[in-house]
Specification:
There is one protein chain. It contains 21 helices and 26 strands. By secondary structure, the protein is an alpha/beta fold. It is elongated and about 90 Å long.
């Protein structure tokens, strides 16, 4: 069984709040960070009881700093300090202390000198039934590489002295993690893991402020863990995360994300090695591959129904199916299914009361909905189920971003007959024909920037989705960061937009509609200008783009005059990348917090028109001063 731990420094709150969050997330062990203990009013014995009462154990007490290689009288003082820490450990019930490599300018070099110090420290710890682990800090004065720390431990040759490995300290210095494979697993006493984005910072600043959970950054934590697993190590895999966002956020949410990240990382290592690894006895169901959007469900009040339906008809949608027992209608065009839910009770109604007319659920078609839901549960996603009438389907579902739902469907029995079992065809066709919309190109979700790391982890651990490069977008009120999750075949794309300031339009969106959620849906067409003409003919309001934009467009891309004139007439935006071109237009907002985009990708264009976002944002701000547009 995977032995999971987390350092108290990783979470916000006081020590008791941290322990509650750690226990509730299902961790087995806790690293007591000394500052958290010193700032807490209860003594060591009481804290030890608090830990055990929650079903946890103190896996590590840390850190003990500036120990090895000191000249006298500082060497004697260091041993005196260690004895006092051993007193605390015994009262806590902690069996292992982390000793990080010396950063003091007083420290003397020499592997033999350091080994002698640790041999004596091991004697002192051993007499008390305790152990010490040596960790190489990436900024240590003389020891800053786990290979050198291992050599100190090897020469100390003491059963109470072992090695502590930390993925950040190894990977931030680009040390080959495969060098760990040569270390005997029983000489590794503890393993800490942390990811981080690749940043051009000194290692100390990088570590203290920008660590994140495995899978959230750019370090090869999986390769590090695979090397650890190859040694036969059977101890704790523990998170030590120094991150300003995490320390200001919800301890409960970060702890759940932390457990999710560890379980997913261990599962990836097991899958890659095809051997039992890190205590993982069986693999999870594989990450679900989203094959398509099954449907998008919108919650609305009955008084808004007519206005929303008018917009959908203008976009060329047909009310093709009605639910057998609920006020839910499927509006269809091409491969797009939009459910309009105006029920007066149930989840959608509650979601509407909180957020207004909005997207309350996304449904993804996967190969096996049961396996997808099982993996989600193993990774601590919150399952959802509500009563259904006899004979109706129960779709596997979990809570998603902003408290919305994510449903899983597949083409197997009985879920593959959703539209036959739960719905009845209306027989109604489009009055003036459809508008040429073929499929959902992407669904864009907005959130606080501090929520983005959690959302990225949610999508990339539950699903086979890949992250694009994060893009910064200049909003008139500040910066918005955007990153998309997408499948390998690009059938499903989910841009995430993080607002760093409530002065941004994305921030206003979050404030006015009480939290994260879908801010717009983009539909794909293969005849952009015909679709644009049809929408205008149907009375759909199109966001007006200023003429200055088109003058600049001509200069940037050298477009021919005919294409430029068509873009101008359609109030369309244009972009290019190395793969192709992109046409896009936006509708005026419908009731609530959602609007629509129409796009056409030419020649394999991969982006989302980010360069046009400031133009669109300004146009939306002018269009309706009271409505807060957001970025894609």
């Amino acid at each position: 069984m995977l032995r999971t731990g987390i350092a108290t420094v990783s979470l916000s709150g006081d020590l008791e709040e941290k322990l509650d969050a750690i226990a509730n997330a299902g961790f087995r062990g806790v690293e007591i960070f000394e500052n958290d203990f010193l700032a807490f009013p209860a003594g060591a014995r009481a804290v030890g009881r608090m830990v055990r009462d929650r079903g946890l154990e103190v896996a590590l007490f840390q850190p003990f700093r500036d120990f090895e290689g000191l000249p006298e009288p500082f060497r004697t003082k260091a041993f005196d300090r260690a004895e006092r820490k051993f007193d605390v450990m015994q009262e806590l019930g902690a069996g292992l202390m982390l000793v990080c490599s010396n950063v003091s300018p007083r420290a003397l070099g020499g592997t033999d000198r350091a080994a002698a110090d640790f041999r004596e420290l091991g004697d002192r710890a051993g007499r008390r039934g305790l152990k010490v682990g040596f960790e190489a800090l990436a900024w240590g004065r003389h020891v800053f590489d786990h290979r050198d720390a291992w050599e100190v431990v090897r020469r100390a040759d003491h059963p109470a002295v072992g090695l502590v490995l930390d993925s950040f300290h190894t990977l931030c210095r680009d040390i080959d993690p495969d060098s760990i494979r040569a270390i005997p697993g029983d000489r590794i006493f503890f393993v800490q893991v942390a990811d981080a984005p690749r940043l051009a910072l000194d290692n100390l600043s990088w570590s203290r402020h920008f660590r994140c959970l495995p899978g959230q950054g750019g370090l090869d934590v999986d390769r590090f863990l695979a090397a650890v697993a190859a040694t036969g190590y059977e101890g704790y895999i523990s998170l030590e995360i120094f991150n300003d966002q995490f320390r200001a956020g919800s301890a409960k949410a970060v702890a759940v994300d932390g457990m999710r990240s560890l379980v997913a990382a261990a599962d990836r290592v097991r899958a890659a090695t095809s051997l039992p690894a890190l205590g993982v006895e069986k693999s999870l169901p594989p990450p679900a591959v989203p094959r398509a959007w099954s449907f998008v469900e919108c919650a609305a009040a009955e008084e808004d129904q007519a206005a929303i339906e008018d917009r959908l008809r203008g976009l060329g949608f047909t009310p093709s199916h009605r639910h057998v027992s609920k006020n839910v209608v499927n509006w269809r065009q091409g491969r797009i299914n939009l459910l309009l839910n105006t029920e007066r009770d149930g989840f959608a109604h509650a979601f509407h009361l909180l957020h207004g007319a909005s997207v309350c659920a996304l449904a993804l078609e996967v190969d096996d909905a049961g396996d997808a839901a099982a993996r989600a549960r193993e990774l601590l996603a919150q399952p959802f189920e509500q009563p259904v009438a006899e004979g109706e389907l129960t779709l596997p579902a979990i809570r998603g971003v902003g408290g919305s739902l994510v449903y899983f469907t597949d083409r197997k029995e009985p879920l593959g007959r959703l539209w036959e079992i739960d719905f009845r065809a209306t027989g109604e066709g489009p009055v003036d024909g459809d508008a040429g919309l073929l499929a959902i190109d992407h669904v864009s979700q907005s959130m606080e920037y501090d929520e983005m790391l959690s959302s990225v982890l949610f999508y990339t651990t539950l699903f086979d989705l890949h992250r694009t490069t994060e893009v910064d977008i200049a909003d008139p009120g500040g910066l918005v960061r955007s990153q998309a999750m997408e499948t390998g075949d690009l059938a499903v794309r989910i841009p995430l937009n993080g607002a760093g300031s409530h002065r941004t339009m994305a921030g206003r969106f979050l404030s006015d509609f009480f939290g994260s959620g879908v801010q717009h849906i983009a539909f794909a067409t293969d005849d952009f200008f015909a679709t644009a003409a049809r929408l205008r003919a149907n009375g759909v309001g199109i966001l007006e783009i200023p003429g200055n934009y088109y003058d600049d467009l001509e200069a940037r891309f050298g477009l021919d005059s005919d294409l430029l004139a068509r873009l101008r007439a359609a109030d369309a935006l244009y972009d290019e990348d190395e793969h192709g071109a992109y046409y896009q237009l936006y509708t005026e907002p419908v009731v609530g917090r959602c609007f629509f985009e129409v796009v056409q990708r030419l020649g394999g264009y991969r982006g989302f028109g980010a360069v046009n976002a400031p133009i669109r944002l300004a146009a939306q701000a002018r269009s309706q001063d009271t409505w807060p547009p957001v970025v894609d």
